[in-house]
Amino acid sequence: MAAQASPQIRRAAVKLRELSADERARDMVERREKGRRDLAMFVADAEKKGKQEKAVEVALNLIRLRIPAEQIVEATGLPLDRVIVIKE
Predict the structure, then answer these.
(1) Do the beta carbons of residue 72 and residue 80 sit within 8 Å?
(2) How many Å apart are CA 4 and CA 15, to the nearest integer?
(3) 65 has a pLDDT exceeding 50
(4) Rounded mean pLDDT of 56-83?
């Protein structure tokens, strides 16, 4: 087994068992991980919203240039019904 081969791995395994047994430490790790996941989800949502806002901005510019709705859909990735609503 690799844990028997390396003193560093043995120490890490012991520390892992200690932390896993300590409910307070485990709770801290779980909260930290939840915070990281929440932050990652927040960032992903913000990026998605920003991309959608940019697509609408591009669609508005293309509408001003009198580009047909079908081409705007192709250029922006917005659904046709959304482009039609923006056009109105």
Answers:
(1) no
(2) 15
(3) yes
(4) 94
- State how far the Cα of 55 lies from the Cα of 58, in Å rounded to an integer: 5
Q: Which 3-state string (H, E, C) describes the chain?
A: CHHHHCHHHHHHHHHHHHHHHCHHHHHHHHHHHHHHHHHHHHHHHHHHHHHHHHHHHHHHHHHHCCCCHHHHHHHHCCCHHHHHHHHC
* Residues sharing a CB contact under 8 Å with residue 20, sequence separation 6 or more, in sequence order: 26
Is this structure's pTM higher than 0.70? no
pLDDT of residue 1 exceeding 80, the answer is: no
